[in-house]
Specification:
TIM Barrel; 248 residues; binds pyridoxine-5'-phosphate; alpha/beta; single chain; 11 helices; 8-stranded parallel barrel
């Protein structure tokens, strides 16, 4: 079954709204694991708007499942990855004014920088992933740079679902889903592990989870949103059921 990695940044977003000590993302991670999370994902942004460096090191101490660290390709973030040694380092583009990650990395354009950073991460035995749009050229570029994994950006699919009154059958939704499908197949064909994420919800996840060969789904906002009503453990459990049902 495709694994579920739970992104807990959104818990830290609530904490940082008050600059206080609760809710604690480390407790959220523990609850997510009790609900069946196969991995925990966090993004340390350059502006530290949600997760803080101390959160990363506390998670490193406490979380028993693989820890996935999202970051921008900068020397500061590379140093943080090398010192915290997460199970996977996931490169994402970062824009100062964006509300959330808006698009995939331009691996082709950034290949020189990324290739040199990947060399350092490989020497430290760290697995690496590139967050990219559903675009075959970017997948090829990720392979050439030396990434182990690519994560296909499912945001355009998720936005199409919202635009079309939550229909999973609308032709535009199907078209976006087909782009993800073609990307997953291409990535697997050229020997990359393929993950997917962004904008996935309890409602729309079935359309993506039914694509064969996706290693991990990285999901945050919808799980944290639903946890307000049913608790983190139940929210993760429901998402796992939805993934399982889609693959039955
Ligand atoms: N994957 C990546 C690379 C992301 O940046 C994010 C958002 O932090 C996610 C997955 C999870 O997206 P969402 O919070 O919309 O589920």
């Amino acid at each position: 079954m495709t694994k579920l990695c739970v992104n807990i940044d959104h818990v830290a977003t609530i904490r940082e709204a008050r600059k206080t000590i609760e809710p604690d993302p480390i407790l959220a991670a523990a609850e997510a694991c009790l609900g069946g999370a196969d991995g925990i994902t966090l993004h340390i942004r350059e502006d530290r708007r949600h997760m803080q460096d101390a959160d990363l090191f506390r998670l490193r101490e406490s979380v028993q499942v693989p820890l996935n660290l999202e970051l921008a390709a900068t020397p500061e973030m590379l140093a943080l990855a090398l010192s915290s040694k997460p199970e996977m380092v996931m490169f994402v583009p970062e824009g100062r004014n964006e509300v959330t990650t808006e698009g995939g990395l331009d691996v082709q354009k950034e290949s020189a920088l990324l290739t040199s950073m990947l060399q350092e991460l490989r020497q430290a035995n760290l697995k690496t992933s590139a967050f990219i749009d559903a675009c075959l050229k970017q997948i090829d570029a990720a392979k050439s740079c030396g990434f182990d994994v690519c994560e296909i950006h499912t945001g355009p699919f998720a936005e199409a679902v919202i635009r079309h009154d939550l229909s999973l059958e609308h032709p535009e939704v199907q078209m976006e889903r087909d782009k993800v499908l073609a990307s997953v197949q291409h990535a697997l064909h050229i020997g990359l592990q393929c993950n997917a994420g962004h904008g996935l919800t309890h409602h729309n996840v079935s359309a993506i989870a039914s694509i064969q060969g996706i290693g991990e789904l990285h999901i945050g906002h919808s799980i944290v949103s639903r946890s307000v009503f049913v608790g983190m453990q139940n929210s993760v459990r429901e998402m796992k059921h939805n993934i399982k049902d889609a693959q039955a």
